[in-house]
C-alpha cells in the first residue's frame, strides 16, 4: 500500500484549503477559465468558479470526487488543452519533476502555477532546525523555485507567508501551534514526517514533547507569540506563455 493510500483518511481530516493560500493560487491563475490541477489530492485549492480537471495518481486520494488517474510525467491530454495548469505542494513527490513541469507547460496555453517549497529555507522552521535536522538533508534534494521557473520557461516567484492559524495541515502550518506536531493523527497528514526514519522522528518529537512540558520551547520562541504570519520558504511559481 502506498504512503498516500495509507494516509488518505488523515489528509481528508487535516488538509483543508486555507483561504489565504487559495487566494494567492487563484490570483496566480489570472483569468484562466479552464484549469488542470495536477497531483490534485482531494482537490484543495481548486477554484470553484472555473472549469477544473483534476489529475491524481492515487485512487484513495481522489475517491471523493471525479478525477483523471494519471501521473504528472505523462498527462493524457492534447497540447494546449487548458488555459492554465496548477500544482500545489506536490512537485517534490514526482518521480521526475522536470518531466512533470514540461508536461504542465505542454498542456497549458497561457499559465502554469505551482505552489512549492524552497529547500534553502528548511531550517526556517524550528521543528527542523532544533529537533529534526535530518529533514533538511532530505529536502536539500527538492527542486528550488528558481529551477522550477527555469524549467517552465521563466516568469515570477511570489512569497506565500503561512498564517498562524493556517487551516491546511501541511508541515509548516503549525509553526505557532507546536502541540499539533505531537498528534499522531495530524502526523499522518504530513508527508515530510513520513520521509524520516521512524527512530529519528520519534527522537525529535520526544524532545519536543519534553521541551513543551518544561516550558523550554515557549521560552525559546516567545517571539512567535505575536506573529500573525511567517515566511517559511513556501513559494508560488508563475510561468506565463503568450
Structural write-up:
With 242 residues, this protein is an alpha/beta fold. It has a domain at 3-122 and 134-169 and 230-240: Vaccinia Virus protein VP39 (Rossmann fold, 3-Layer(aba) Sandwich). Helix content is 36%, strand content 18%. The chain is built from eleven helices and eight strands. The chain has helices spanning 3-14, 19-28, 59-62, 97-107, 126-131, 134-139, 145-152, 184-187, 191-194, 198-214, 216-220, and strands at residues 34-38, 51-55, 82-88, 108-117, 155-159, 162-163, 229-230, 234-240. The chain has a six-stranded mixed beta sheet with strand order 2-1-3-4-8-5, with helices on both faces. It has a two-stranded antiparallel sheet with strand order 6-7. The protein is elongated and about 60 Å long. The model has no long low-confidence stretch (mean pLDDT 93).
